[in-house]
Structures are given as C-alpha cells and as structure tokens.
Amino acid sequence: FTPNPTYEEVVTGRTGHAEAVQVIFDPMKIGLVDILRWFWEAHDPTQGMGQGNDSGTQYRSGLYYFDEGQRELFEASKKAYQEALRKAGVDGEITTEIRAASDFPGGVFYYAEDY
Q1: CA atoms of 10 and 60, how far apart (whole Å)
Q2: What pTM was estimated for this model as a whole?
Q3: Are the CB atoms for 17 and 2 separated by under 8 Å?
C-alpha cells in the first residue's frame, strides 16, 4: 500500500487502495442490516475489480469490519444475497472482500480529497 496517496494516485490502481464511502450512522435510527441491504442492492458485487465502466482494483467491492459480530453479519448477508442472486438467475459469484479494518495500517479510511 502507498501511504496517504492522493486521489489522483488512487485512481491509477497502483496504490492498493479502493475508493470508498465511510458510513457513520445512528443505530437508534437505522440498523446495520438495513445498511447492508442497501449496500448489496446499490451496486453489482459480482463485477470483481470494477463497477460499471470503471475498472481496476480501486473500484472493488468491500466491507471492513471492526468486531467479530460485524464480520459474522457481513458474511451472513453476503451468503443471503448470493442465494437471492442465484434465485433471480444471476450466475456470477459475489467478489466483495470482507476484511478486518485492523488489516490496514494507519486505518481503514481517510480522506483523499478536500471535498
């Protein structure tokens, strides 16, 4: 991984980073299960290293957990969504990486742009 790359460096696909959205939520207003439902339905998790016309490792699908409970929930939701895709006639395998946030030195998320 390139430490603290700029956005321009990330989009080259050579830094090991992915474009990401950090989700901060109030669990009293919305549950993690609801957020995961949106996550799976808002993109195509079977595209591997890309989304739509964007291709490269920086466009991979990923979920990063902070505790064992989150990991179990992420894995269970992936399995359920894979089953739903199969029932809908989609043959592709989900390629979403599910990893511990602690796997990333310096933190799993940081701002690469000022806006």
Answers
A1: 12
A2: 0.84
A3: yes
Give the DSSP H/E element, type plus range, for residue 55. strand 54-55
Please name the amino acid found at residue 109. F
Mean pLDDT computed over 38-63: 87
Instruction: Give the whole-angstrom CA distance, residue 77 versus residue 20.
Output: 19
Contact between 57 and 97 under an 8 Å Cβ cutoff? The reply is no
Q: Are strands 50-51 and 54-55 parallel, antiparallel or unpaired?
A: antiparallel
pLDDT greater at residue 6 or residue 79: 79
- Are 101 and 66 in contact, with CB atoms under 8 Å apart? yes
Q: 68-87 and 32-41 are packed helices; what angle lies between their axes, rounded to 10 degrees?
A: 40
